[in-house]
Amino acid sequence: MSRIKSYKNSPSPKLLEKIGATNLTLADAVAEIVANSFDAAVDGQPTIVEVQVDGEEVCVVDSGAGMTEEVLVEAVKLGVDMSDIVKKPQGAKGRFGLGMKTACASIGRWWAVYTRPIGSRSEFRVVFDLAEWERRPDAPEAWTIQVEELDLPADGPLGQREHGTAVVVRQIRQRDPLAGAVLTKLGEAFKPHLEQMDSILVNGDPAIPHKYTFVPNSRVPVEITFGTSDQFRIAGWVAIDKQTHNEGDYGFNIYRHAQLVQTWCQEWFAGHLMTSRIIGEVHMDFIDATFFKQGLQQSERWRQASAEMKEFLKPVVRASRELSRKGNINSPVLAQQIVSEMYVGLGLESPRSHDGGSGGDALGDQSSGDDQPKRELPKLRVDLESLVLEDGRELSLSLVEQELSTGGTPFDFLLDEAGLALLAVLNTSHPLFLETKDMEQLRILAIADSILRFLVDECGMSGRKAAEIRSAWILTRMHALPEAVRS
Amino acid sequence: MTPLSDIEGYLDLDPVEGLQAAWADADLPLGARARLVSRLAMKSRLTLEGAARICEASPAEVQALLDLATLDDDDLELVSQANPPVTTWFLFAGADSDWIRAGLEALEAVPDEEPVLCAVYEAMREQSGPDLDERIAAISGEILGHLSHKAKEYGKLSPKARKFLVDVAKRKQTGAPLTERQLNWLRSILFELVESGVVCSESPDADQELCDQVLGALGM
Question: What is the pLDDT along chain A (487 residues), one digit of tens a residue?
């Protein structure tokens, strides 16, 4: 025999404190609150969000529609899907009913929400003090909140605004909150809003989306639909930056309903310095973001979207690589040719026909017929004498000229132990290479250096002995040089 | 190609630790190792020398593997299956699909314990044809003389550079080869002429054939 009994399942009030223990930075948390401001936009009116950040208080005030008392009560409950309570604009960012509470709890231990609903003469306020919440007993009543109704106080955080909402957080957890980081984050996170009519001010400074300097004509639209009846749409753009981004700020910013949910996604191509010129933005309203909008849920739709993007980006990735090959980025003609080839790969009209031939600072198509710039093999010298080792084995010697790093080693080597072959590498990015006029002697030095290091590091020979062998080899090579080079 | 999702364990690690572990993992196929090391090296934000130190490798070794990671998936898979010695990685990384196939065929034909670099290089060279310097060196004296004249009419190039073109044209008549420095200067002059519109694909000066020869030599 079985029986079923029901019990009330109410979370401990201490949960309110615990939800603040996230990895959100202050900037992320403020962005979460600002997202609610844009969800509360008044139709046809710009939303102005003013953020104040200092060591005592973080305050986010918006000119949105505000909330009625009933809506406010639901909005401050944990885990309430507000789309069940209030009609939100299409593409509302809030979804899980956790963002604002999580954000406030991560910023500080005391917060208040002030709101003036549009068309009302009242202001409503609700306060959360975590110290007081911690003292509450574990019982359903512990989650009772008090809403205070006020008569439009002019000295409150909403000031003279007719409608809007202010979130004020105190007892800040972070010792030195950085307004600059918040400003940068908001500029990135709400770029689509800022590029239209909305604005955000942080301590009086306007948030401005970052601007890039792209290779002329390299910015192309991304427009992909997939799924049954093409119900999923990816829209945005991708471009190739003139700079590489070793710092990691490249790839795609992904927006869901005009809010950034993923920064610099590099999942759709192999991340490398040569592909780090790829910069793009895509809007994927169909994907699910995590509740604090700091990542994407790895759903089937996301996997499909990733596959589509990988395929779409192949010509762009190729173009980024080609532009990063030696010198191409500095040649407007070659750069334009590579971009033209990218257009062909993407099935787009050539940039020349787009811009009437001006081509930015590039010069249009200079191709002699074969569209893709010809690849060049690395400069390799394989016609060098081999070195006979003490044990009678013969070490074959070769040299390649290759870009390594600017400030690093001028010479290096690779060793094929099976075939006993040594490939000296002459770093063409090194100042020694760039400044030297006699390349032939530099090549000899590169191989000599490799021989020395090979004998010491790989054969365990003493430095003195290895240097003797190296010097003898240099002399042999110098005699092999044409008279003109030696003199 | 081993998908990155199969080796996500490395990506979950701290990028520096992951880089160290991925580099040391001898069981990883070359292609997967290249992709993984490339991704972790970027994520770690280490310099080339820093990454080399972490991996206990030389900067050239790390750079060669990073360059391999820039190949298209299909090309990288081919190279990965053949698992060529490290001395050939720069060659494969800079090659297009046809050259890679030629290089891999040559690789197979070399007996064990023989150095393979030379064979791979020669096979690729055969496939790729003359390189940039060889193509430039093959431009005729007649074309160079014409370019000097045309540059003067267009008001491009310094008098010294225009004279150099004439000198090279004369030198060609004697059959003397250009030195490396002369070749470097000639290359930069030719690129300058293209970028300033003196040499172009739709020349209004009834010299299209000559222009096309120059553009072809420059790989355009």
Answer: 678 877 666 666 677 777 777 777 888 899 989 988 988 889 889 999 999 999 899 999 999 999 998 888 888 777 666 665 555 554 454 555 567 888 998 999 999 999 999 988 889 999 999 888 888 877 767 778 888 998 877 788 999 899 999 999 999 988 778 888 888 889 888 888 888 889 999 999 999 887 778 998 899 999 999 988 888 999 999 999 988 887 677 899 898 887 778 878 888 988 887 888 999 999 998 887 664 445 566 678 888 999 999 999 999 999 998 888 766 787 777 888 889 889 999 998 876 544 433 333 333 444 444 455 567 788 888 767 788 888 888 888 999 998 887 678 899 999 987 768 899 999 988 888 888 878 888 999 999 999 999 999 888 899 999 999 999 888 887 776 655 544 4
Residue in chain A lying closest to B218 (CA): A374
Q: Is A345 on the interface with B (CB under 8 A)?
A: no
Which of A368, A409, A437 comes nearest B212 by C-beta? A368
Contact across the interface for B118 and A382, Cβ inside 8 Å: yes
- Its pTM stands at 0.63
- Terminal alpha carbon distance of chain A: 106
Interface membership of A423 toward B (CB under 8 Å): yes
Q: Which residue of B has its CA nearest to A427?
A: B60
Domain ranges (residues) in chain B: 1-70, 71-129, 134-217
Q: Provide, as residue numbers in chain B, all residues whose Cβ is less than 8 Å from the Cβ of A246.
A: 42, 45
E strand or H helix that includes residue B220: none
Q: Which of B119, B194, B193 is nearest to B156 (CA)?
A: B193
d(CA B115, CA A94): 63
Q: Which domains does chain A show, CATH number per domain?
A: 15-206 (3.30.565.10), 220-354 (3.30.230), 379-486 (no CATH)
Query: Is B87 in Cβ contact with A415 (below 8 Å)?
Result: yes
The percent of chain B in helix, strand and coil, each rounded to the nearest 5, is 70, 0, 30
What angle do the packed helices A439-453 and A463-480 form, to 10 degrees? 150
CA distance A255 to A236: 9
Confirm if A243 and A268 have CB atoms less than 8 A apart.
no
Q: Which amino acid is at A274?
A: M
Q: Do B220 and A331 touch (CB under 8 A)?
A: no
